[in-house]
Write a structure and sequence with these properties.
Strand content of chain A: 15-25%
Helix content of chain A: 40-55%
Mean pLDDT of chain B: 92
Helix content of chain B: 40-55%
Number of strands of chain A: 11
Structural class of chain B: alpha+beta
Shape of chain B: flat
Number of helices of chain B: 26
Radius of gyration of chain A: 21 Å
Distance between the termini of chain A: 49 Å
Structural class of chain A: alpha+beta
Mean pLDDT of chain A: 93
Shape of chain A: globular
Oligomer: heterodimer
Chain lengths: ~325, ~725
């Protein structure tokens, strides 16, 4: 029985954002390059590197081409939304804060069964890993809770806590819907008119599934991947050569477009996922391509850290903020 | 004698690690208390006599997801004072002209006594200076405060983490509070920046945030008041009772016993309760294995069966809270399960739209291993091996459906292309068997596909049917052969393709089905199946090198089976396998026969004599002495050696006859009857004599004895009492 008093999808987002804003988080907006998970957005991947404390929350639409089901499957989406929270360093009461956030979206914990079950996270393409839990609410996994230990092959100090809320699942749970597509996204306060998840997203799920599984031009996608990869690698090489040169000015370092290079790396990752969904990557190739993308991510993480610590302008800001 | 309480308050510790950590903490604390003499009663300070037996201290253990705790009752309030004599410099150095030298003074200072109170002591090296010193025992609180943090830091975790800046320590999850009490007093210990106190925390949702523990003896009770059952065994009992109670509401129903799952939920909860949920009976048309996997592995639910053992449309979820008065939790869990079953149903229906047999073509696009080609080729190879093995069985009069076995081999990997297997990879094989059955393939084929990965461990059963056994063996042999031919031989802890487990499976299946399969032949043929494929071009091992490493590898697996599964002594196993290690069934029979006779005095003596004969032959070989083979009985001089020479052919004939009919124990008894002749030989005859011809013939006799009588076991491998 759908619960009409439950928050809408957008209310869930708004309440969680408000909760974390009140905890002092920067509310970022979704990153506008395709990513497979909120972790890959620079607000997580790059910000967790180095010593600078940071708190941020953002919704991240996460695209996983292989998970698409043409809008047919009530529980699976090619693109789902995560609310990503990064707490660097994690406060001592981070778990309690998280439980508070559930209350903010109307979950009375006394009436439910909540468990933190071991679930460690690893992303081979990002050379990143952490330990943590999947948070289970009445048997449903609603959040990934991870203490990052390493990112881009670099040991983190301080570490960050990452909370990833599965927004569709949580709202379907709150509204008691068996299909994500029946989730009420918005309700007009004047007219009571509802817009469902289906109204907002079904067409996209269908058409992008068709594109991902049937239409994407494999040869061109491979070429795109190779071009992005080459440009990204070239930028990393240039930065490294420049950084090794003592004559390089602080300004030249500070303005070097590593963030631009990172976007190229994200493109590679997405195109790889697309080719994978398209069935265009053999098992042997798979390992190789993952290793290539990992190399970019690791190269960028190192370069980014070097840029942060060797650039007085950036460094000063870092220390000021800390 | 105060009681000691230690509680480490932690963010949720992974269920799989909790028990081992709790045991390790106990062991560490036990040995710490003993090492620091905190077991000694203050009244008997006279040394080791009054030391209590460590194993007699009854520790109370508590382990929940959020805490590792223990209470040690009645430890000493302080270490005993220790009086001992310490030795200083020699008298020669300590005194010059009757006056103490700086060396003596330094020693006195170190010992904390006046020079005038130093004594003399005689040692084997001469006279030395000595002092009697009394070291004051330290209070228990001080000792514990210093030593316990090191023990906490030393705990082993399969996966641990940093959380504080500067990475000062690693633990499984962040430590958030600590309690350490000696009776009412806080022990001032500190770990990970956390000072111990008396405040613990109750259940996350049900309990008060803070609970002040008054004394160690009240700990468990106070925890309980805060909705935490501290002891694992107690939680287990509670869960069992709750499972029983919930199941009783359905007439004739039983919950499926599952020790591993039970342990998991015990370690996931502080205040467990159980709810019974239901699912739509229409899902019962799905394979039971799929339903159980979803419930057990994905949702940690117990399955429920009806009186006839069939799965019933209910499940039991263990909660970490005190109940579900409004049924909200049940409703939520049912919703999740419904979604998962719907998914499975969708895949089942979707997969069944394709004819199972037609999936084989798709295997051409599924890589088996990068150098070994695709799964289609693998099924071709397995098919050929299976056909050959079945043919051989038929020739020996063993009943087997050769056609079904080959068909099962060809279709065995088809389920790798099924959506259901992509979702439930742990069910490969099983799902294939179910599709084959559902689509009307013969039972023999379906069962063989279903059982192809069996046994998955040494505890697992072997394939049920002869066809299944052959397919399972051929599949595993194919993987092992390919990897070994590529030079990918398991070493140490490195065995990424689980080849050891697969070889164990082959051995167990052959042994339990009593199959007529020779390991060397099986593995030779398995390699042959790769002939003229692209894979064969990548083979690095020569045929000889391959055979050698395969033989060594399987011998180890067979040793493992005989020792660890059948429980035979290692020397019996060595003796048996030294004779032959390729026929598993025969090796088992021989080993069991050897085990039965090995402790008889005659057999022990024979074993000793065989060692002696082998030693003599080895020394002769090293010294390049000629061995007359065959020896001429006429060249022998002594009566005892002529007697032995005469006895050998007679005994050998009997033994060979018994061996041929696999009557190993009587054969071994025949051999042990030779004991008097052999003993007499060694009493009277010197083998390594100067006379070259005589020596060569005596060596020849020994070589014959060893050669003729070692076909059941190499007796020289038996470890005997006498040297």
């Amino acid at each position: 029985m759908p619960d009409p008093t439950a928050p809408t999808y957008q209310e869930v987002i708004l309440r969680l954002q408000e909760f974390w804003a009140l905890q002092g988080s920067v509310l970022q907006q979704p990153y506008d390059t395709e990513v497979g998970a909120g972790t890959m957005a620079p607000e997580t991947f790059l910000r967790v590197l180095g010593p600078k404390p940071y708190k941020v929350a953002y919704v991240q639409p996460s695209r996983r081409p292989a998970d698409g089901r043409y809008g047919d499957n009530p529980n699976r989406l090619y693109k789902h939304m995560q609310l990503q929270v990064i707490l660097k360093p994690p406060p001592e009461n981070v778990q309690e804060l998280y439980l508070e956030s559930l209350k903010a979206i109307g979950i009375d914990l006394r009436m439910h069964d909540i468990k933190f079950e071991e679930d460690n996270w690893e992303a081979p393409t990002l050379a990143a890993w952490g330990v943590g839990w999947q948070v289970m609410l009445d048997g449903l996994e609603i959040t990934q809770f991870t203490y990052f230990q390493q990112c881009g092959g670099i040991d983190l100090d301080p570490i960050s806590a990452e909370l990833t809320y599965g927004l569709e699942r949580i709202t379907a749970f709150l509204q008691d819907r068996d299909s994500i597509y029946d989730v009420v996204w918005a309700r007009d306060p004047q007219t009571g008119r509802e817009a469902t998840y289906r109204d907002v997203r079904y067409q996209e799920e269908l058409q992008v599934s068709v594109y991902n599984f049937e239409a994407a031009d494999v040869d061109k996608t491979w070429k795109h991947l190779e071009m992005y990869e080459a440009e990204c690698q070239e930028l990393i090489n240039k930065f490294n050569a420049m950084a090794a040169d003592k004559a390089t000015s602080a300004e030249a370092r500070a303005r070097f477009p590593l963030l631009g290079a990172y976007d190229l790396c994200l493109k590679c990752s997405h195109l790889f996922n697309l080719l994978d969904a398209r069935g265009a990557i053999s098992v042997t190739e798979r390992v190789g391509v993952i290793a290539r993308i990992r190399q970019l991510a690791v190269g960028l993480a190192k370069a980014y850290l070097a840029q942060q610590s060797s650039t007085p302008a950036l460094k000063q800001k870092t220390e000021g903020a800390a | 004698m105060p009681d000691f309480l230690l509680e480490i308050g932690c963010e949720e510790i992974p269920a799989r690690m909790l028990e081992a950590a709790s045991i390790e903490l106990t062991t560490r604390l036990r040995s710490l208390i003993s090492r620091e003499s905190l077991l000694l009663r203050p009244s008997d300070q006279d040394g080791g006599e009054s030391r209590l037996d460590l194993s007699n201290i009854l520790l109370e253990l508590y382990a929940t997801p959020r805490r590792l705790a223990l209470v040690v009752p009645g430890i000493a309030a302080a270490q005993p004072d220790v009086t001992e004599q310490v030795t200083g410099p020699s008298l020669k150095v300590a005194f010059k002209d009757g006056k103490p030298t700086p060396a003596a003074e330094a020693f006195a200072k170190r010992a904390g006594v006046d020079v005038s109170r130093l004594q003399k002591t005689s040692t084997p090296k001469g006279e030395y200076l000595a002092a009697t010193v009394t070291r004051k025992g330290r209070p228990a609180a001080e000792v514990l405060a210093e030593a316990v943090p090191k023990e906490i830091a030393g705990l082993y975790w399969p996966k641990s983490m940093y959380w504080r800046a500067g990475k000062p320590e690693r633990f499984v999850r962040p430590v958030r509070w600590m309690v350490a009490l000696l009776d009412e007093e806080v022990v001032p210990l500190e770990y990970a920046g956390i000072k111990a106190g008396r405040a613990t925390r109750g259940h996350r949702i049900l309990g008060p945030e803070q609970v002040s523990i008054s004394t160690p003896t009240r700990y468990a009770q106070q925890l309980r008041a805060a909705h935490v059952v501290g002891g694992g065994p107690e939680r287990e009992l509670r869960i069992r009772k709750a499972l029983d109670a919930a199941t009783r509401t359905i007439s004739g129903a039983r919950w499926r016993e599952d020790a591993e799952l039970l342990k998991t939920v015990v370690n996931l909860t502080e205040w467990p309760s159980v709810i019974l949920g239901n699912f739509d009976p229409q899902f019962l048309s799905l394979p039971e294995e799929v339903l159980v996997t979803v419930m057990r592995d994905h949702q940690k639910y117990f399955a429920v069966e009806n009186a006839s053992g069939k799965l019933a449309p209910h499940f039991l979820a263990v909660l970490n809270t005190d109940g579900d008065p409004d049924g909200l939790i049940r409703h939520g869990n049912e919703r999740v399960l419904r979604a998962r079953f719907n998914d499975a149903q969708f895949f089942w229906n979707f997969d069944n739209r394709t004819r199972f047999a037609d999936r084989r073509e798709k295997l051409k696009h599924v890589t088996f291993q990068k150098d070994l080609g695709d799964y289609y080729e693998k099924t071709e190879r397995i098919g050929r091996s299976v056909g050959a093995i079945a043919q051989a069985f038929l020739k020996s009069g063993i009943t087997v459906d050769r056609g079904a076995a080959v068909e099962a081999a060809h279709l065995s990997k088809n389920d790798l292309t099924a959506e259901l297997v992509k979702e439930f990879t742990e069910l490969q094989g099983i799902v294939g068997g179910r599709y084959a059955e559902h689509q009307g393939l013969s039972k023999a084929v379906a069962d063989a596909i279903y059982d192809q990965y069996k046994p998955v461990s040494m505890e697992d059963s072997v394939p049920r049917t002869m066809e299944g056994a052959i397919v399972a063996i051929a599949d595993k042999a194919d993987s092992i052969a390919g990897m070994f031919a590529l030079g990918l031989v398991p070493s140490g802890s490195k065995d990424p393709f689980a080849l050891r487990r697969q070889a164990n499976g082959i051995v167990k299946t052959i042994a339990e089905h009593k199959l007529l399969v020779n390991l060397a032949h099986l593995m030779y043929e398995a390699r042959e199946q790769y002939q003229s494929s692209d894979a064969a071009k990548k083979f690095t091992a020569t045929v000889e090198g391959y055979s050698r490493s395969i033989a060594a590898f399987f011998r180890e697996r067979l040793e493992f089976y005989l020792r660890d599964v059948l429980g035979l002594a290692y020397d019996v196993v060595n003796a048996t396998l030294s004779a032959d290690a390729n026929d598993v069934v025969d090796a088992v029979a021989r080993a069991q026969a050897v085990a039965k006779v090995r402790s008889s005095p005659d057999f022990e003596s024979i074993s000793t004599s065989f060692k002696r004969m082998k030693n003599i032959l080895r020394q002769a070989a090293e010294a390049s002495k000629r061995v007359a083979e065959p020896y001429s009985p006429g060249a022998l001089l002594e009566e005892s050696e002529r007697e032995l020479a005469a006895a050998i052919p007679i005994v050998a004939a009997k033994v060979n006859q018994l061996r041929a009919s696999k009557n190993y124990q009587p054969a071994l008894i025949e051999i042990s009857k030779l004991r008097p002749s052999i003993d007499a030989f060694f009493d009277k005859v010197m083998v390594m004599v100067e006379d070259e011809k005589l020596r060569a013939n005596r060596l020849g006799l020994l070589a014959t004895v060893v050669g003729e009588l070692s076909s059941i076991a190499d007796f020289s491998e038996i470890v005997t009492e006498r040297k």
